[in-house]
Amino acid sequence: MKQFPELDRNSLEMVLENIGAGLAIVSRDFRTVWANSVLRNIFGKPEGRKCYRLYNKRSKVCPGCGVRKVFRTGSRQVVHEQSGRDKDGNEIWSQIIANPLFDDKGKIVAALELVVPITARKKYEQALKVYATAVVDAHEYERKRVARELHDGVVQTIAAAKFGVEAALKRLKKDGSGVRKDIATVARLLGGGVNEVRRIVHGMHPRMIDELGVIPAIRSCCEEAAAKWNMKVAFRLRGVYRKGGAFFGLGVYRIVQEALSNAGRHSGAKKVAVKLDYRSQVLVGEIKDDGAGFNPAKDAGFGMSSMRERVASLGGTFEVKSERRRGTAVEFRIPLIRKERV
Question: How far is CA 59 from CA 55, 83, 115, 199, in A?
Fold first, then answer.
């Protein structure tokens, strides 16, 4: 290659300009001496500008600056991640790899920065954190719900049965009269407790979905909600049921179940309409009630967030329409042919 020095120079420039990451030389006073086209496209014209002003609009060196560490310690390489603003003011993230540049006497005179864009990765990581938080919240919400139902139902029933047994024992110590009636009462209470446990277990994972399918389970859910909260619940199905993924059926069931619970428990609805419309490639669902309504922008509780997250996990879209004293409509669209979010 010594025979073609111009070709060497051109080749080097071509590599530096098309490396796919930003490259810059930063002097000891933190001024950008040179930058390749990738960095110029992101930040504008950087030459002669302080790097911390250019990247972060700061008046002094950024905390954790790798270039400063190179200058202070003589480290051969410092890698760190840094947020900043591009020339249009958008937040961006970069992984910055700083290396020292030496003069002929071995003194560090500048630093070479390799700036790798990682904004997409950071956004993905942030989305994962939000999703993980939502999962934890959902688990905690479910634990609280089960604990509340156990306390309000089963625990009270068992306590009453305990008092009945104690009363029967006292009667036995005296003359034994009325013991048969006490035992019958205890048996009735314990039977009710068993049914209550079955109801809670059914709520955690409806066995009917596995045995009969999603649609019969949803019909049963509508009937149970109507009886529990004294509502009139109408269920309408259009199209032919088709499975949309591994957890599709259970997901749709939970969305309907939560919407009915909100209608009965919080809005005091008297009438609820549940509609499922299976179209060619999408399931369109709507649960509409005539309850008290609310302001979705301010008053949406965890139940709404849980439904929204569940629809999102199935690759769909979710919308709530509600006004005070005008009821609530929950609408969702879930693709039937899709890639599941993991």
Answer: 11, 15, 21, 63
Query: Which strands, in side-by-side order, build the sheet including 317-322?
Result: 232-238, 271-278, 282-289, 328-335, 317-322
Report the 10 Å Cβ neighbour count for 324.
10
Q: What is the 3-state secondary structure (H, E, C) of 263-289?
A: HHHCCCCCEEEEEEEECCCEEEEEEEE
Q: Say how many CA atoms lie within 13 Å of 189 toward its Cβ.
A: 19
Question: 271 forms bridges with which residues in the sheet?
Answer: 232
In the DSSP assignment, the letter for residue 62 is P
Rg (CA), the chain: 33
pTM: 0.48
What band does 2 get if pLDDT is binned at 50, 70 and 90?
Answer: very low
Amino acid (one-letter) located at 298: K
Edge-to-edge order in the sheet of strand 91-102: 32-35, 22-27, 108-117, 91-102, 78-85
Q: What is the pLDDT of residues 286-312, one digit of tens each?
A: 999 998 888 877 666 667 888 888 888
Asked if residues 244 and 334 have their Cβ atoms less than 8 Å apart, the reply is: yes
Residue 307 · residue 258 · CB < 8 Å: yes
Question: 253 is written with which tokens?
Answer: 């069931």
Least confident interval from 53-67, 70-84, 171-185, 318-332: 171-185
Distance CA 35, CA 113 (A): 9
Within 10 angstroms of residue 192's Cβ, the number of other Cβ atoms is 17
The CA-atom distances, in angstroms, between 169 and each of 139, 173, 175, 185 are: 42, 6, 10, 14
